[in-house]
Structure prediction request, 376 residues.
Amino acid sequence: MAPRAGGRRLPLALLVLLVVGNAAAWRAADGAARQARGYVEPNVALHWERLDGNRVRCLLCPRTCTVSPGGRGACGVRENRGGTYYTLVYGNPCAVHVDPIEKKPLYHYLPATKSFSIATAGCNLECRFCQNWQISQSRPEDLVNQRMSPEDVVEAALASGSRTVAYTYSEPTVFYEYMLDCAKLAHERGLRNVYHSNGFINAEPLRELCKHMDAANIDLKGFTDEYYRDMAGGSLAPVLRSLKILREEGVHLEITTLLVPGGNDDPGDLRRMCRWIRENLGPATPLHFSRFHPQYKLTNVPPTPVERLELARRIAMEEGLEFVYIGNVPGHEANSTYCPGCGERVIGRIGYSVDAAGLRGGVCQRCGTVLPGVWE
Ligand code: SF4
Prediction:
């Protein structure tokens, strides 16, 4: 266990200031000791081995970086100091917000509740279309970081009225140790844990994480190795393995695919992907097709046409998936949940406004079908 930030607990009143977003008051209350550009407090990492010449090999994700003394892994937040591997982001989130859980997105898990959401710098992929590249592709010393121990996170989450702590925005795998300790403590204090990840993690650390994780939304970025290699610097097989592990370990699972025009929207690939999901994870696995908007390194690609998203949804439903959503298109009817038994709209969503009157205790009020998910 890493030491508490600053070796002390922060008063609850200060945590509440952060939760309500009163950054000015927060800084005034605790000054530079609380938040600083480049604030970093190294802690010994998990899941690595020592090699000859004081080199180390990281075993956390499929990149398995070999790192010489003084160097860092590809994610930019894990560093070899004299033959010992350190995480540079334990207790140093660069983003702290209270979000609707629908923003993760999780549509079948405690709808209309608040989720206390944190992220640090760094990512182990390099997606050309990244929506949070300002933090995911940065090193911690280049960002303004909070000093927040797991105790601070859990106290702030409770004070905010959140039901869950979410590990999100950048890539939680690279702040694995921090996530793990926060998740353990959150469970002890009656909170649940959810995370949004690229699923690019090795099997052993993932199984350990699953003991403390309640729900996950995993990006399935495409369904070819070429797409993963060319657009993200990764590969497909480890992500599919992670999806199977999460299902085996009983973690509530949803999937997001950002549909990039001309990239991963080939109807044949989408059909194969949806068939794989049905056969390996089950037809009740919620799938979110999210609309791409030009950003980061893909500013030359237009936004996904809505008809393309609708075609992807039709293909998914033809392949037998029961809950297929269209995201990032405000007001679209496919952002709501429909009963697979009778077709009734049981959860209406417009933006982050949620009307779940058609579903009580997970049961469709019209026909009595039980919908999969965690509703209470
Ligand atoms: S977590 Fe980071 S350092 Fe470890 S293997 Fe992955 S990219 Fe490399």
Q: What stands out?
A: Residues 300 and 341 are 42 Å apart (CA to CA).
